[in-house]
Amino acid sequence: MGTSPARPTTYDDTLGMRLSHRAMIADAGRLTDLLAGLAAGAPTDARHGAAVAGYLQLFCTSIEHHHRTEDDVLWPILVETAGPHVDLSELTEDHDALDPILAGIRELAPQLPDRTAAAALAGHLGRLRDLLTEHIAEEEATIFPMITGFVPLDRWAQVEKAAKKGARPDFEIARALDCLTDAERPAIRREFPLPARLMIKVMASRHHRRERAVFGPSAVLAQHA
Fold first, then answer.
1. Residue 90's Cα: distance from chain center in Å?
2. Residue 159 contacts residue 9 (beta carbons within 8 Å)
3. How far does the chain reach from its first CA to its final CA, in angstroms?
4. What's the CA gap between 44 and 163, in Å, rounded?
5. Which helix (H) or strand (E) holds 79?
6. Is pLDDT larger for residue 85 or for residue 37?
7. Average pLDDT over residues 13-40
8. Is there a contact between 146 and 14 (Cβ–Cβ < 8 Å)?
9. Would you call 132 exposed, middle or buried from its count of C-beta atoms within 10 A (0-12, 13-18, 19+)?
10. What is the DSSP code (8-state) at residue 53?
11. In terms of Cα–Cα distance, which of 30, 72, 69 is closest to 52?
12. For the whole model, what pTM was predicted?
């Protein structure tokens, strides 16, 4: 008796990665605006500066973890399954270009709420925003068709497992779910049973308090359904 073929990965299966991409771009944009405002003299104090610095560190760690998962897990799987169809050189170069920007953000963040540091951070974050926006657009246009065309679902599950390992759930999950569209919410409800959804709600509440401390009372990207 022959073995049944492995189910291919579908576009719907990539929702988690697409949400991570949206969250990164959204945060890069609003952090750029926030730091530009602080550099221009927006009200702040030491407590707010510490909250912003903490968020920046979490944000940098999130990006580094995401790209390490791609470099160490997704790229080798694509090379194995898609073979000659794969050219990852430009995407890898983008990852390398991010490293000094993230290092600069990490170095300057503890100096907040100093305005000079805020101005330098706004510059770093603006470059990060632009690079991420371009990189993610290229990645989703070129890599996602390879994933859905060549990667079996069981191999994609390895990528998702690596993405979850070492990540901060109270930071990553809340940010990702805040980027859901109305059309995507039913799929998340089907994937997570009620106990998991309740736990996610607790984590989301914690993260939204973190956001308000950084961005202000109307900061949350979107409310969970």
1. 19
2. no
3. 47
4. 35
5. helix 75-82
6. 37
7. 96
8. no
9. buried
10. H
11. 30
12. 0.90
- What are 119's two structure tokens? 């101005």
CB hemisphere CA count around 197 (13 angstroms): 12
Cα–Cα distance between 107 and 99 in angstroms, integer? 12
Alpha carbon distance 83, 123 (integer Å): 39
- CA-to-CA separations, 114 to 32, 65, 175, 215, in angstroms, rounded: 16, 28, 27, 17
DSSP state of 165: T
What is the per-residue pLDDT across 164-192, written as a single tens digit (0 to 9) for each? 898 888 899 889 889 999 898 887 777 77
Q: List the Cα angle 93/122/68 in 5-degree steps.
A: 30
Pair of tokens at residue 2: 């022959």
pLDDT tens digits, residue range 61-70? 999 999 999 9
**Domains of the chain (ranges plus CATH)?**
12-215 (1.20.120.520)
Those residues with Cβ within 8 angstroms of residue 63's Cβ, 6 or more apart along the chain or in another chain: 24, 98, 102, 132
